[in-house]
Structure formats: C-alpha cells, structure tokens
Fold these 2 entries.
Entry 1:
Amino acid sequence: MKLLTLNFLTCARKACKQEPAAFPLHPRDAELERVEMELNPEFLVNVLPRLEWKAVRSLGDELGLPTLPEQPPNPEDLMEKDGSNEPTQTLKDLHALLVETSVANGKLVCGHCGHEYAVKEGIANFLLPSHLV
C-alpha cells in the first residue's frame, strides 16, 4: 500500500466519520518496502493541491523518513530555477515518500478509536467485524 494512499483514507467506523483524530491512519509495526520508480514531476505537481500537508508531514515523521517543509511547496518551486530543469531535493523527497515507499506488512491504527487495520503483502483489510459496523 503506497504511502500516498494513506492521505486519502480514514477510519471506516461510523463513530469516527466526523472525528478529526480518525485521519490520518497511523502505521504501526510497519514493514516498509521501497521500490524505485522513475520520477514524474508532473504527477507530483498535480497531486500536491489534493494532499493534506499536515498528514503527509506527520506520516514522514512517524516513519523516520526525510523531513518535509512546514508548508506545502509551490509547484513552481519544485524544479531548479537555474534553467537545468532538474528536480529540487523537496521534490525528490516527496517522490520517495509518496510514490516509492509502501507498507508491505503491519497495521494502520485509527487515532480516535484505536482500531487496527491489518496490512498483509501490501493490501490493507478495511472490513470491520459486525459488532463495529
């Protein structure tokens, strides 16, 4: 499960739907997997406005990955301005965190109710037991 996906998920319990603490889900005992992929600046520039930046930063901090800036970068600041059209370090870090890194095994935990969703072989199980539906 790509870390980018965690920026769009919240706890599935009805009691957590309106609770701010239910987002984002927090990885616990996460076994991370990194698969190198070609950098796609256009994709990152287009997805950047859709991201909850505070959640992206906290996810990176929780997993001990490179620290991102306090505020989301402006899309035009993600490429070097010296005419070389090279990506900045911030763009490379975003790519590594959101696109190349995934949770292979572990748990995703709701910050509100504490429910744990298992992740096995990169697939999260969001089915709730009947008593929690």
Note: The chain has four helices and four strands.
Entry 2:
Amino acid sequence: MTHHLSSTTTLHNGVKMPWLGLGVYKVKEGDEVINAVKAALQTGYRSIDTAALYQNEEGVGEAIKESKVSRDEIFLTTKVWNTDQGYESTLKAFEESRKKLDVDYVDLYLIHWPVKNKFIDTWKALEKLYHDGLVRAIGVSNFQIHHIEELKKHCDILPMVNQVEYHPLLTQKELLQYCKQEGIQLEAWSPLMRGNHLDHPTLADLSEKYGKTPAQIILRWDLQHGVVTIPKSVQEHRIRENADIFDFELSPSDMEQIDAMNQDRRFGQHPDHFNFD
C-alpha cells in the first residue's frame, strides 16, 4: 500500500491525494508557517492542510511560491469557517481564501464543521465551485454519519473526504467503516492527540519493538487503517521524523493492540455539541 512519502490514495472522482500531509493549525502567520511549509515541501511532503480559521493562508501561499515546487505537484486543502457558511457567503469566503493563498485553484475544499441549518446550502456552494473547476475535490470535516446521511438527501455529489479527529484514543470504527462503504476518504486531524498520551505503555512497547517513536507508530497505524493523516509540527526535525514511516509495517496483532487503546476520548469539540454561536 503506502511505501513512500509520495504515495497517494485515489478519491472517488479519480483525484489523487497524498496519504501524509502537513497540518498547520495554530501555526503562526508569517515566518513560522512559511518555514514549516517550506521544510515539509523540501522533505518531500506534497500535501498541505490549512483553513480560513487558521489565519495563515497567506503564509502557506508564500511558502509554496518560495519552495519552487511546481503548483501541480502540491495538494492544497483549505476550509470554510462556520461564520461564513451559507451559499453566497461560502462562495465569497472561498474567493478570499484563494486570494490569500494566491492560487488559481484549491485541491480540496472542506466544510469545517456541520453548522445546523447551514451545511446543506454550504455544500451546494462547494458543488458549484467543483463544477466551475475552482476546486479539484470537495469534502467535509467533523461530520458524523447522520450529518452525511442528511447531506446525501440533498446533494448531487457525495463528499470525497471527511476530515475528523482520529487517533488511538478515538478510533471511530463505525465512522471509518461507513466512510469506506460510501467511498469517502477518512482523514485524521490531531492524529498525535495534541501530544497527549504519547507515553502510553502500548505505544512505548511498540516503539521499542519497531525502533520507532510513539508518534511514528501512531501515524503508521493511521495509514494501515486506510486513513489519510496530517500531523502538525513547526520543527524541521519533527516534520522529517513524522515522514519516516514508510519503511516498516505494524503486525495485525499490534494494530489490534493500538485499536484497544480506544476510550472515545476527544481533545477537540464534539460535532454534535459544538457551540456554533
């Protein structure tokens, strides 16, 4: 399956998306985000994930230019924030993101959270952007099964990606299975649990067994479950380390050990209890 950093999964519309990318949540605009993105691109990453909320789209765009990596080699994701949801406001928000990123198109545009009574209209705007060729793929983020089922009643195009909180303490097995059945690629945000519980005994044992860091064990576990992952880091050595996961494979029993760590524990918001006001 995934043998190197440039390995991709194919979304249901035929677009290829790298299995591993760099997330830039809470990475400061300016030098911090520019340096992180450039370090990732120099290491061989080809997927960068940002969002309007992160307020660093300009730095991401600047880093892409400075990196001299051809735009068509980069898979760029951004997201529409909750306060911009709705049909016309989403189209406007997309245009603002595109200008900040200074690109002609975005590879993947996501609805950041399922804002009640708004996400259907927001999705219709994403479908228009897709039909207009301004985005190569469209998807959702933080959608539960019932949100996607609701969307299915009103949409012409099924989401290509669902980006959710996913890690060993929140394995979301039912959602993963559902997305696989529907042909929706699951993607993990906060795959490293925001740095919590990396000293868990299971991870420590496997770290020793495979000669890999706990973070590398988790990221490998993501890939073997068929989940795209976008670990965030601003340190070049960590960015390199997170990418060094293609030279080993976890055994089925070790995969099960990590699955057994599940506590349905979130470090972010629950999509059904998110305060959108």
Note: The radius of gyration is 18 Å.
